[in-house]
Structures are given as structure tokens and as C-alpha cells.
């Protein structure tokens, strides 16, 4: 089965240009029943420009998000480990043309960065490495993961390490699996082959190596897989249909769709002279998040601090279920006062984790530091079983409350603690099962007395 059929996608985008109102209504009704949408249905939504219909789509997306994930918003931090890279991707500050000195963290420096992140309250990291088979060998990557899991500062612990490394072999994916990673993320950047080939040079320029990476990762035993696109490289409509096609391919071939979809938008960076010909406006960006939420309801959606607080707030309502906070995008960045010259991209949200948590509470959402699923064996199709039955919330909601309580006790500022405790009281009421509520109340009491890491 071909993963991306460009001609077919372009044909669908053309064919669905003038879809009828009746057709639109049927698609929204189907989406509200939490059924994945097919490519033609996604094509219809992509072509909608009527503001009233877009509003209807957003309302449906919000409903779906709340039905599957509830009000929780999972927080994580990226940890840049090495900026050595043999590729020259036109849009990235780590490209080879950038002659600024490169940095690779020693294991001792990794430990120091992790201690800083633990002191902030983070429990979940996403590791970032440039591609360099010598400097960033798989053995180094594994040593970094082991080091991270071993760092325990006071009540701090990183409980889930997700990872973003270049496309590699089944053997190397097996090693990552054995090291206990959570999700393996790799973005196609653009699914449009001619654009992909134009914007890359180095080993990553091989489109087929990139697009088949998920197949090898799955063969290596990793079943929580994250895909994504860098929006702005090519027409977002084509990319959205391609993401849905890739998700469909994974579902059919692996029996499990992507665990997450990430939606980064191109951001400038020092030394990057790439000009996005297909820049995505804020309006289109929010629309594409809405469409993805409707099309692949069981897939978590991730947004980073590339986006401004304003866009992030709106995106949380319509589909984003995970977000980074308090991020730095340089190796060693967490103990530097400001971003260095060699950053992968510029950030738009410079708030601390505590400020972000405070804001999330005021928006009516529930910040979560949960890492329970992969530690309880709920990965791949086992995870999807709960997501599809709509019962994953029975885990997400109590785990969000207990991990948030830990955060409030150990790391929050007085203002955040005050608003956070109100959120917890409010969210306890949303737990329908009396048994779960009682169990959770007992756990919260234990957390108040000093126990940690209690999860469902
Ligand atoms: Fe290297 Fe990744 Fe940046 Fe490309 S996007 S230059 S592979 S770090
Ligand atoms: Fe994620 Fe599972 Fe925790 Fe829900 S219970 S937030 S799906 S790890």
C-alpha cells in the first residue's frame, strides 16, 4: 500500500471544492459520533471557507476533544541534547551552513539539565538530537536516556522520555524500545515529494527513508508513534490530507494509528534565510487543527511554544491535548538566561512552566503531568482500545488530578497553588464513578502526606 498518493490527494482537493451544505452536515454528524473521516470528507472540510461553517466545525471539534480527553492538558518540555547535524534542512537553525559552534551535552551536563527541569516540576521530556551518526550515535542516545531516568532530585523524576531522532534502522529502534522510551516522534516535514527534495540535503533528503521510518520503528517494537508536518513548507491543505492518509496507512498496516500528531508552524531562526512561500495564517492554522481533531479523533495533538499564548489558548479549545511549556531550544539552554545564537527556531511563548500552568487553570483546563499509560502497558493497540471505547478519560482525569496535586505541593507558586486547588475541587466533581472518586480522594490525601507517583 502506497503511503501518500499525491495525484489522488490533489484530485480530492479539486473534486471537493464545491461540496454541498448537506454533505457538510453529514460529515460533521459522523465526526461527532467519533468516527474517523475518510480523505474525501477531509477534503470537503479543508475547502470550507464560510465563517459560519468553520464555527460549526470548531464547536464539533471542541465536543470531540472533551469527549475523548476531557479538560486535561498534558505538559512536557523539550530537551535539546545535541545540535550536531549532517543535514542542511533549509528551515532549521541547526543546518550545516550555520557555522556557529555546535554543542553536544556530556552525560553530566544532561544530568544538570534534567535537575533543572525536575526543579520546575516536569515529568515528561521530549529529547531532540540532530542527525550525526558519529557524534549522536545510537549508543550515546541510549546512554542519555538511561542518564535521564536515573536522575532523581528531591521529589523530582522524569517518568516518560519521548524521543525525536533521525530515521534509522529496525535494530536501532529496538534499542530505543529496550531503553524504555515513550513515543518515537518523526515528522515528515512536508509530504509533498518535490518540495521535500528541494528543501533537504544530506541523508535526510531521502524522502522514502523518512516516510518509511514509522514502519521500521513499529517493526522494532515501538507502538506509540508520533507523526507531524512543519506547516509553511507546502500547501497546508495537501499536508492535512497527507497526515490523514499516513494515519490511515498506519492503522491499516500496524493495526494502530499514530499516538500523536504534531502541528509545528515554520518559525524564523538565526541564519535561516528560508522564506515560507506557503505561510499558514492564524485563521488557517486554527482551521487545520480543527479538521485534524475531527478527522483522527483518537490521536493526541501536540503544540509547542513556537506559538504565541493567544494561539495556544484557542488551540487548546479545539483540539490540542499536549503542549510544551517553559521550553528552550538549544542544548544546555535551561541554565542560560536567554536563547543562544544556535537555536533551532525562535520561540513565541517565553512564559515559565508555572505561568503557563496558571494560565491553563484560568482557562478552565486541567494541567496534567501524567505518564501512566506506557508505564502500565497501555501502549499501541492496547491504548487505542481504551481511546476508542471513550474510556481513556477514566484514566486521564484522575491521573491528571493526582499529578497536578503533586505539582501544586512541590513546585507551584502561591498564586498558582491557589487557583490550582480550585481547579482540582472543580474537576473532582466531574468524576462520575463514586468508586474512582473515593479512591482518588484517598490518593490525594496520601500525596498531601508526602507519597508520590500514584497512578491508575
Ligand atoms: Fe538537522 Fe533536523 Fe535541523 Fe534538519 S531539521 S538540519 S535534520 S536538526
Ligand atoms: Fe496520557 Fe494515558 Fe495519562 Fe491519559 S492516562 S494523560 S492517555 S498517559
From TrEMBL:
GO terms for biological process: sulfur compound biosynthetic process; water-soluble vitamin biosynthetic process. SMART domains: BATS, Elp3. InterPro entries: Aldolase_TIM (IPR013785), BATS_dom (IPR010722), Elp3/MiaA/NifB-like_rSAM (IPR006638), FeFe-hyd_mat_HydG (IPR024007), rSAM (IPR007197), rSAM_sf (IPR058240), ThiH/NoCL/HydG-like (IPR034428). GO terms for molecular function: 4 iron, 4 sulfur cluster binding; catalytic activity; metal ion binding. Its cofactor is [4Fe-4S] cluster; [2Fe-2S] cluster. Keywords: 4Fe-4S, Iron, Iron-sulfur, Metal-binding, S-adenosyl-L-methionine. Pfam families: BATS, Radical_SAM. Residues 69-306 form the Radical SAM core domain. This is [FeFe] hydrogenase H-cluster radical SAM maturase HydG. The lineage of its organism: Bacteria, Candidatus Falkowiibacteriota.
